[in-house]
Amino acid sequence: MTKKQRIRFIIDTLNHLYPQAECALHYTKPYELLIATRLSAQCTDARVNQITPALFEKYPTLEAFAQADYDELCEMVHSCGFFRAKAKSIIEMSQDLLTRFGGKVPDTIEELTTLSGIGRKTANLICGDIYGKPAIIADTHCIRLSNRLGLVESDNPQIVERELKACIPPEDQTKFCHNLVHHGRAICDARKPNCSECGLSAVCKFKSTR
């Protein structure tokens, strides 16, 4: 099996296993995904999804977030961890979106990463999920699984992003990353991967070394 065939097998198998895989964070507006993703840093998506319904109800518009009382916002996002930095970023990014981008979430990595607290991982998520652009979301699941599968050999998110962009077809990239999250949670656990139940075991570099 050539490298290209192996990659196609991985993509197709994951698509078969997780046909409905999508971003695990709940949102209805583009800026809500931006805020939810900021909250998810060092926090589980499940925890964020518990917080955001009340948060988005209290602050129903971008203007409301931009004008939010810092202490009140800290209290609402406290259980996400690093709540002070996150509350500060949410207020600042909301203000920036209104003053610099006319209230619209930008659609380029370069513009998105100028917003407070927004790095390349979040920027790629926005570009992929909101704007349908090719995007590699190099989160912990993506980094772990792409290394185990032998697609990359690095824990550096920027290197992983660059190398996966080079080998995963553009039209598959965003879905591929969401599939890796689902597979990482269901089968390829960080500590106890269930290799015997893995549909990718035939092409997995990690399994061959255990």
Distance between the termini: 21 Å
What's the β-strand tally?
0
Structural class: mainly alpha
Secondary-structure element order, as H and E? HHHHHHHHHHHH
**Principal-axes shape call:** elongated
Mean pLDDT: 95
Q: What is the second-level CATH architecture of the largest domain?
A: Orthogonal Bundle
**Helix amount:** 55-70%
Instruction: State the CATH topology of the largest domain.
Output: Endonuclease III, domain 1
Number of domains: 2
Radius of gyration in whole Å, from Cα? 18 Å
Weakly predicted, low-confidence segments: none
- The count of helical stretches stands at 12
Main sheet: strands, sense, barrel: none
CATH class of the largest domain: Mainly Alpha
Describe the structure.
The protein is mainly alpha-helical. It folds into 2 domains: 3-22 and 135-208, Endonuclease Iii, domain 2, CATH 1.10.1670; 30-129, Hypothetical protein, domain 2 (Endonuclease III, domain 1). 58% of the residues lie in helices and 0% in strands. Helix 2 crosses helix 3, helix 2 packs antiparallel against helix 6 and helix 9 packs across helix 11. It is elongated. The model has no long low-confidence stretch (mean pLDDT 95).
Provide keyphrases for this structure:
210 residues, mainly alpha, Endonuclease Iii, domain 2, Endonuclease III, domain 1, 2 domains, 58% helix, 0% strand, elongated
Short structural summary:
With 210 residues, the protein is mainly α. It has twelve helices and no strands.
Topology of helices and strands:
Elements: H1 3-17, H2 30-39, H3 45-58, H4 62-66, H5 70-76, H6 83-101, H7 109-112, H8 120-129, H9 140-148, H10 157-167, H11 173-186, H12 205-208
Helix pairs in contact: 1-11, 2-3, 2-6, 5-6, 9-11
